[in-house]
Structures are given as structure tokens and as C-alpha cells.
From TrEMBL:
Membrane-spanning parts: none
Taxon lineage: Eukaryota, Fungi, Dikarya, Ascomycota, Pezizomycotina
Any coiled-coil regions, as ranges: none
Gene Ontology cellular-component terms listed: cytoplasm; nucleus
Signal peptide region: none
Protein name (Swiss-Prot/TrEMBL): Serine hydrolase FSH
Molecular function in Gene Ontology: hydrolase activity
Organism of provenance: Aspergillus pseudonomiae
Domain of life: Eukaryota
Keyword Hydrolase assigned: yes
Gene Ontology BP terms: secondary metabolic process
Amino acid sequence: MKILCLHGFGTNPGIMKRQMSALIKHCDPRWQFDFLAGNVECPGAPGVEAFPGPYLCWSLDYGPLSIRAALDLIDETFQSEGPFDGVFGFCQGAAIIAAYLLEQADLYPGRPLPVRFGIFCCSTPILTADPDYIYNLYGTLSDEDIRRLRSGEADQIAQLPDSVRPAAIVLVEGLAAMAPVHGDSLSYFLNRPFSEIPGVVLPDQYKPRLSIPTLHIYGKDDPVSLKEACIFNAAFCDPRWRKLYRHSTIHNIPRSPTDVKEVVSLMESMTSHSQRSRL
């Protein structure tokens, strides 16, 4: 069993391996966890100062061009180091691998996905690399509505058209929740040409679905916007085979004995189902 793991913003493969050590210790020893390094250097996430850098992410500006570069890196990894049975993503790593799998489902609707299961832990909102999606989201906004979007203010966002308001709310709230990690202001992400503003992918607006067993993990004390991102992202997955689990702390990979036991049990159940479906 070979699982590709994607780390969170401002960490690296070594840090993620440490974060996952309790889970890995209790997993089947035949499972192989391979850790992919993000393609962009960035400031370290809070609390990683004791670990050696470089600190990495999958996108620093969250715009479609940098998301495309991350998706290309993942695709190259599948081609050169695969096949993989499953994926495990944390934080931005969970969102970027979800974006990759959704794009594969969109591009090749008659083809099986390149993995048989997915684990998405404390995912941030899924962002698009598709310029057409960005245009459909923002391209027809009036100048006044663009100003409302760029303000990042809740009362202004609430006045946006129905076609863009839900995605804009998720974007702004997600960026605000992750500000201690990425360290940038809302204006850094929003005060750009509309084609470079990050575009959140929501299940009501993007039709591809993941028809594999999935596990979606979030923290009991996570900000509300990140809990909602996890639930939104789960809506892209087949309800027959998706599971949600709330662990006992805040934005992190489960470490407590109770959480580890429950998550490993869910992982074993999911991998067993994926193996049976292959037969």
C-alpha cells in the first residue's frame, strides 16, 4: 500500500512525517508513506522554528498560475513515482491534492482516478487553476462589485451577486482564518486584476466528483470557516463512501491516543473497501 502525502503551508516533508508519526506507528507496517515537497519556499508556519527548513508551500499567492504549477508537480510525481494507492493531504496539501483529483475527474470522466482512496486533514478551501473558472466567477462583475470584492469586508461581500457571493465568503473567511500561517493581509490576495484573484471551487459551481472512498478530518477547535471548508470539500465526494471525523484539538494531524485509534480504524476500513472494489 503506497500513500502519497502532501504537507501543509510553511512546513516540509520532514515536519509532516513528524506530525504523522503517531498515526504511522499504528498503521499496517506494509503501508508505505511517501512525502512530496511543495514547490515554493515560504515563511515557516507557527511552531516549526525547532525544525530545519526550508519551509515550503504549494502556493504562496493562491492565484491560478501558482496553483497550476503545484498541480503540474503532482502530476509529474504520479507519472515518475507512481502508481499510488491513496493520498493523505494536510491543510493546503489537502486542498491541492483535492484540486488535482477533481481536475483529473473533469478531464478524464471515463477513466478511473489515479488513486483508490483519499484522506484530507484540516483542508483549506479548494482553489482553481482554471482561468475560465476564474473568468466565470469574477469576469462579469461590475466595477462596483469588484471594489466590493477587493474590500474584503463582510458587509460589502454580502452585496455581491449570487453567482459569486458564496465563493467570495469562503475565500475571505478562509484567508482570514489562515492569516497567522500565511502572514499576509486580505488586500494582498484581493487587490489584483480579477484574473489573478484566488478562485474557490464550491460543489454547487463545479460538477466533477470523486468516486472513491474518502476521509475528511477537522479539529474540534478549528475556526468555523475551516470546519466549513472541510464539509464543503467532502461534498465533492461520493456520499456512499465518504467519512467525516472531528478530532479533539485544533488545526493539526491527530495525535492523541483516542484520535489516532479512531483515524487508523477509519483508514483501515477505507483501504479495505478500496481493495475489495478493485477485485
